[in-house]
Automatic annotation (TrEMBL):
Protein's name in the database: TonB-dependent receptor plug domain-containing protein
Keywords: Signal, TPR repeat
Pfam families the record matches: CarbopepD_reg_2 (PF13715), Plug (PF07715)
Gene3D superfamilies reported for this sequence: Tetratricopeptide repeat domain, TonB-dependent receptor, plug domain
First and last residues of every TPR repeat: 477-510
Species in which this protein is naturally found: Aureitalea marina
Signal peptide (from-to): 1-18
TonB-dependent receptor plug domain: residues covered: 232-334
Amino acid sequence: MKSFTSILLFFCTLIASSQTIVTLDGLLLDRETKEPIRFANVSILEKNVGTVSLDDGTFKLQYNKNKVGDLSVMQVSALGYQTRQITLTQLYRLFQKTNVLMLDTNLAGVARATVGDPVGVSDTRLSGKVFSDSGPLQGATVKIKGTYREAITDVDGIYRIEAQPGDVLQVAQLGMIPTEVPVSGAGPVDVELKVDGQLLEEVYVKGEVKKDPYNTEFETAYGKREFNKLGFSIGQITSEDINDGYTNFDQLLYRLNGLQSSRGPDGELVYFFQRSVGSSVSQNSLPIFVVDNIIYQQQEGQSLPAIDVQNIESVTALPGIAASVKYGGLGSAGAIIVKTKVQAYGETGGEISRKNSALVIGNNYSEQLPFYDNDDLLPAYLGQLNKASSFEDAKRIYLSQGSFADSYGIPYYMDVADYFQKWDRNYAASIAMKLAELGPTNVRVLKSLAFKLEELGQLEDAKSVYQRIALVQPEAAQSYRDLAYIYKETGELNKAFGLYKQILANDTEGIDFSGVQKPAENELRQMLKNHKAQVDFASVSNDLLDVRFKQDVRVVLEWNDPALEFEVQFVNPQRKFFSWKHDMFDNADRMFEEVQQGYFMEEFIIDDDVQGNWLVNIRNTGLNNGDGKNPIFLKYTFYKDYGLPTETKEVKTINLSTYTQKVSLDTFLN
């Protein structure tokens, strides 16, 4: 696997050359086990100088002696260890005898589980390759069934995981059929995954093209597939086909392959697929219309909204076999999907307004939804804690739940940490840190922990977790962005600056940063506007130094599982809504790209838009909710006046597995 050393050592070169450069080479060890401590933070307080220990516990710290005095304090911190501070004078004396620094644990088991093998696991280290018929699969998850032990395949499809004979590997990848493989010995275990036919990328055949599809191959995310093996055909007209001669919607529909029309009982035109009706046209044999994700049935008393055909991005005819998977019984006779230019624009995130929808009516919002933290959904253990009348009483109840806590898995510690925020944030963080013991190399667990620590304001601990994730996933673009972001939040601006420049340059071998470049650029602009003098700003282009940079509202969504399918909806003060879908039907290309590049985030900007109260709704639309003990979590970060002195920030962590019905997540004043 590609080493993450390139990220960590990069920071050492950021200190400008000077006449007096001091280099400290040290080694960090666990005081009890004498094991090396990886990815510990080593920094000189208030001097913007720091580095991170490597896999063998060594670190190299360089600084300008003319700017850092002997009484300056070096601080060493690591996930699960007590923070140690020592003046440089004391350090010089120590290094005359030994360059070894010992750290003490602060949570039983956490540190050693973090730096060594998972608790209770033998030294058996299993490796293998995950592949499909088109080659190795990057980003596949390999998990030991019934445990939190999990690995992710690298660019060559290789995984390494602690396993014992008798264990069962659970292997999964987006767009593939998951499988289980028993472990019989220590030899390599290669796993082949088959493409899930229901999740193949849709093949679009433009309406005006009349071709025989037989024996024609089309490229999917996992190799070529013959058209006749897809199980259905699709007709589509795109904006490129819609010239100025088209004035009404019916003209477009006539061009769709396989779509026919007839007059209904009321004399109005109805549309149907040739094979979907018999001798008569009835309501249950007619395809539905879906306009910007709003479903309209062809029935008496319901008509389509007025549509400006020149503002249509695409019209797609989806027959019943595919439409029924997406829309259930309503789509059993097929679907005619209309995507306006505002909807197509929204699929890439970005600014929410700035373009007018083709709909004159139809995107009016009229729902009344519960908020996501509805007390009716509280688990029993939180109900017990809510009866506490004091902090001490709450701690007593929490300790009494220890006998069954692990049986609830990750949600228990996330929920209880959230509960204790009102009493003591440090105590809440200590509860959340239990996750570092349960899943020391499980990226989904670690991301959940990092999300919660950010919400609790424990940024130094969150930084340690993000560093661990980066070493577990060294080829993921998200690892670099998350480190840049957390370094910015902890005031380590040179580290953040170097990583942001690396992301925007996008010239790192083996890593594609294109999926995270836009949010990274916005974060770098915000940092440069407020802290330009503290970094080498002359090394970036002038457009990143715009002093006018600001965003009224910035919303960032991040999630811990690449297969998460969800919908987020923004409702403006005029009760018009905009929806963004992250699922395999509406955004399959995007989801495959996320897996290939290793990023799982989206940002939304509301700037110079409608003034008043806005609403944010969210819904889990997929079937993959993780397992009960390690579910899917989403981090929602809301910024107001981003880039201005009045900027505010709020972080929420949501267990999205429990919200299969749409709920309101936030409301704000723009």
